[in-house]
Batch of 3 targets.
Target 1
Amino acid sequence: MMRFDGQNADEIALRLAHIAWEAGRVLRGMENALLDKRIKDDGTPTTAADLAAEQLIIQRLDEAWSGVPVVAEETASTAQTDDCFFLVDPLDGTGDFIHGTGEYSVNIALIRGDRPIAAVVSAPAMGSIWIAGEKALTSPLPSGEGNGFDWREARVRPAPERDLVALVSRRHGDIATEACLSVLSIGTRRMTSSALKFCLIASGEADVYVRCGPTMEWDTAAGDHILTRAGGSVVGPGGAPLTYGHEERGYRNGPFAAIGDAALAPRLDLPVSASVA
Ligand SMILES: Nc1ncnc2c1ncn2[C@@H]1O[C@H](COP(=O)(O)O)[C@@H](OP(=O)(O)O)[C@H]1O
Ligand SMILES: [Mg+2]
């Protein structure tokens, strides 16, 4: 079975950047098409664009690293994981894709054991991309062929004493998340969709993102790794990092908080979720 011979995590992340850039071109080309949407069992929408981007990503991952399992949003139930596997959300924020806000992303993470080691989040309509292997980097998305990245380091900021910037889902709020946020001194709440929330914290533009409602591993793994390598963290109840590859619970995450500054961790009080404990 193909492994990652001679490639370090930063090189893998660069290859993932090209794949996400290409998938982003497919998605941009379908933005204004009249796409039929279907509502999945979890109540979230999916479209032909999700499928087209997923097929392309799976094909490119297979060309680059043949034989490494891929757990992707539209085909998760059929995948068998291994020590190394990819988690793929070809179109995170499908609701935003449909409604034209542009706040959607392509997320790909390589997991080894139960944690990510290389990842990309690209936001095709916003023109930005983030990657991480060892280092977290960000670039504007090239408009021509995918060779024109201009990478610079992504770094979190220290949390201000008060008036934190919190990122909240545009479409999926819940009471437990609000309770958690209410004990932090939030000055600004910015509605943001998809895994962009992790990346904005990784780039020092925001401080905290709390999510107690349902999410899936492919929603968080790539953003988790990018934020972690930019100096932040993503923690569950009790402060432990999230772990990935939980087929036994259908790849569902529990509650989590993404923070740029570790000093915020003691102020978090996430509920313990019985469903994924
Ligand atoms: N009831 C539910 N069950 C599982 N995941 C859900 C869900 N409601 C929302 N999500 C997840 O939340 C993601 C959107 O996050 P946000 O609200 O922050 O933009 C969705 O990603 P997709 O758009 O890829 O399906 C979906 O995976
Ligand atoms: Mg998603």
Target 2
Amino acid sequence: MGIRVIARIRPQQQHELGKDVIVSTASNTESASDQPTLVKIPNPKNESEDFTFQFSGVYDHTATQQQIFDNEVTPTIKHLFNGFDVTIFAYGSTGTGKTHTMRGSKTLAERGVIPRLLSGIYRRARKIDKDSGGKKTVEITLSYYEIYNDKVYDLFEAPEKRTLAGLPLRDNGSKTVVVGLTERPCENLKDFEKLYDQANVNRSTSATKLNASSSRSHAILGIKLAVTTGDEVRTSIASAIDLAGSEDNRRTQNGKERMVESASINKSLFTLAKCVEAISQKDARVPYRESKMTRILSLGQNNGLTIMILNLAPVRSFHLDTLSSLNFANRTKRIEVREIENEPVFKLPPRAAVPSISGPSIQRQPLRPLASTVHNASSMHAPNNPLKQNDKQIKAFSVYSDRARHPNIETRPCQGDPGRRSSPLKRPAPSDTFMTSASRPVKRRSPNFINSKTQPTISKAAIEDMIERKVTDILAARALDQPSVAPQPEISDEVQRRLDLLEKRIDVQDDGREQGLTFLLMAKQHAVRGEDASALRMYNLAKDFFPDNKKLETKIEKLREKIQHNKEEERRKEAATETKSSKTLLLTTTRKDCGRKDDGDDDYQDEAFTDQHYESDGGFHYKPKIRNKRATAGGISSTEVGMGDVETPRTRQLLDIVNSRDIKQIRLLKGVGAKKAEAIIEALCAGEEDEDEVRMVTNLRELGQLRGVGAKTVENMRLGLQNSMDAVSE
Ligand SMILES: Nc1ncnc2c1ncn2[C@@H]1O[C@H](COP(=O)(O)OP(=O)(O)OP(=O)(O)O)[C@@H](O)[C@H]1O
């Protein structure tokens, strides 16, 4: 079954009243229902024609929160109770109503999908309990986290408890889990509202020019249901996701911090678009792992039901954003999702070997290293190893208990259960919901072979093993924000030294490199715009993450010199202005008498001032120098692209679009289709890994030299840009 995509067009906001509404809904004339399923929007390049997109449901500005919920979400609740996972996510550019749809506001009528979903779940749980006379019970637990600047933070924890690196992700079967995430049992709607409101205070939001309360993060609420009937426990998860909105930074006028956030938001949404594109092209490689959001969302990999709510703004100022969101949604609806319910698990009689776990329904456990070493694990992964074929895939950690773990609970798959619904697309269900006691790793006893006497004879492999385990334990403890749990054996200086090195490497990989690259990207963006001081600040921030990068140091040094030089020029200009002003004053009094011309004034022969002119009104105006050098490198001459190194507003706009790497915008350039847009982005990204820097195109020649572009395309892009921008500007 495909992802169910519905579109919701929000009403005009106060400041948009009287503006041009360009998005409309329509019913499909071939359908029996008169419920709208079509969205219409003019072609920005030719306003006389409309683009039409069809979705499973379409709602205009009159749609209420209740309608959206009743029509789209209510039907999923029964599936949830039958063991299917449900994912609902809101997608759209900033300010289009995602948070309004998902969270809504506090009044009953304006409550969004999330509180209504919880309300529906509790109502059904109570009914089940009542109808079964208490024989069937439902336990609900919640987790709530945000992905901010590609780091995962627990929203049930106070912000001051956050670590720089955020919470790590681990693959667990076919799912991605967040290690160390708090799970809160929640018995009723009132408790939920309290928890949810508190957690939302922790969410990263800020005022931007485009939205007074803009979400700066992707927020994921996990609602876990455990339905117990006798000794059978059926578990399912509803994930309600409020994605951050893509932003066009030429419109946001974001400051430094907002720009960093924005770059991270745009990057993750771009990765999401790449994943959707790869899935629809049936590519072997889908780049889920390029961002945490796509890893967690795992579109097309997650089983169960998925609903995407596409939020749209109706007015012209969102034209290009709306169009690219519609294109994205159009591709998303074709993604097939396996409709498989989760395996039920069974309680078995107590077993002496299983450690007793007490406490409430959710019991987090410290991470436990596996008995097998990673070295062994890798050999077990070999698909053609006949001896190991039946072994389970070895995981580095037993992550955490994700539900009530009663001492006498043992799980086993429900083989041959006639009651189990299955899908023709069914594949072996993941074993990630409950770990069977057989597969649950036994707590490893600390090796005692390392002591001062035996130390000199430790083999290299044993050292590797120890380091691996020590790192594992440290990471586990760090993830849970508590001291290392297993007693550590004494370790030699050599082991400690290598351990420190490894930890350092992990730290840099975990939170350094990506953060550093973001700063580099920001620096480049500022530099291209000529905002040298901001660029320098960003380069300096990046330096902390790439301390030994000579290229970066040189760049910083050059930029510093340039800024210094500019400052001096500025001072000289100011001084010259003052002199000139006094001279002008003098001249105006004498001009009548001598008919003097300014040209002959020696003070203005200095090169620095050749571009300063008196305007006709007598005011002082500085015009930056324009270089007229002809560009011929790479076979592209200035005449071929219509201009040389001259940076007109149109050129700058074109370069900004390309450098934004926003596939939605690049695709809309004249003569650029999806493939070419991707090729451009790929060409920009090529080689960045090695150079620790983000490549930016700084002029048309460079753009023409990108693989697959060429002079003609550049010319087309430029010409088309002017027309389409004119068409959408208000
Ligand atoms: N259906 C609607 N009815 C009334 N007001 C709406 C509706 N949708 C959105 N709004 C209003 O529009 C504004 C922007 O909405 P919202 O904050 O939900 O956007 P968003 O897509 O979540 O933005 P961001 O990505 O920046 O977080 C808010 O003031 C919200 O109340």
Target 3
Amino acid sequence: MDFWIEPFKPDFKARMTQDLPSSPLPLRTDEAKGWSKPVATAVLVLADGTVLRGSGFGAIGEAVAEVCFNTAMTGYQEILTDPSYAEQIVTFTFPHIGNVGTNEDDFETTNFEAQASVRGLIVLAPITNPSNHRSTSHFDAWLKSRSIIGLSGIDTRALTTLIREKGMPNAVIAHHPDGIFDIEALKAKAAAWHGIDGMDLVPPVTSSKPHEWTATGILPARALQPNNGENRHRVVAIDYGVKRSILQLLTEAGCAVTVVPATASAQEIAALEPDGIFLSNGPGDPAETAKYAVPIIQDLLERKIPTFGICLGHQILALAIGAKTHKMRQGHHGANHPVLDKTTGKVEIVSMNHGFAVDIETLPPQAVETHLSLFDGTNCGIALTDRPAFSVQHHPEASPGPRDSHYLFQRFVTLMEQAKA
Ligand SMILES: NC(=O)CC[C@H](N)C(=O)O
């Protein structure tokens, strides 16, 4: 059978229309009847009724979630295993995703039994066979095993523009190989979804019981004094959905780390006699998690234990001292964001993954802003002036991403050393 497929030419004028352009769809052929026609095997249906059609890969089924875009050029496996992406669908602006396969090392979740947090991914180019010596599993098989739905052939630049202009939409991603979808029902499902605002998404991803963490990373860390296998500081990491690379860097910085569930009481934590408290990253609305996390943190701050927070941990520390957080329109997700460290005047290129931000106007007098985003001026870090505590919105563990901000782990170690002295 002879047929012609139009090469994919994104039509940027059509960006904001109801039907966004997409690449050629797979053909379905009926040999007996002698026809072949394009069939969408996956769709993304936004709450406003916009429908994007493409080719499905990964898990088969449907999921409702919030759509964000991530501008990282590498590290898709780390992104898709980061627990902070709970209830989200990631649109990758980098066109080639999946071509280095997947492996046993590049995982960010520490909770291997838990279901994947991210619900789906959207890419431009169809995924290929893996081409990398580290790959142990095909991307498609890996996504299926983790119940993550994939949609390719989408003009991801147009979708990113839509998110930038209208904000992160709620949507249903659906993959059915027969290409049969009840679009009206999917529109209704997307429109009826409650969204992430107001959702505490920590319970499914936090550790169920305290455990010790001892592993270091594969690559040597930057800007850390070598620990020579010696544990100089005892750190309790409160797990709101912690990334593995953060725990590895704490270990490399010379910390003996005990990971505790998000609901561990201040008394239980204090009984471990920590030199420092780490507040982890995690999914969902910080103001909801704060309802139980803030009293615990306030109690620990009273005890003047040095404290360091990352991302959700940063937001919850800010809430604990009386500041407020708000939902962002498009959020920050990528590995190329410039951030200014106001304490040194240096600019670092950082990894980002957040959809909420600390409202800097609400910061009380006993805290100062230490970092800010040079993309949009949003707050990226605070330090308390009356307690040994600081936190950052970006991801100094940088997995994936540039490692400019590794120095923050050293800053935490220095804070613990000063407290001991
Ligand atoms: N990576 C994170 O810790 C994300 C924090 C929070 N859930 C947000 O989206 O802003």
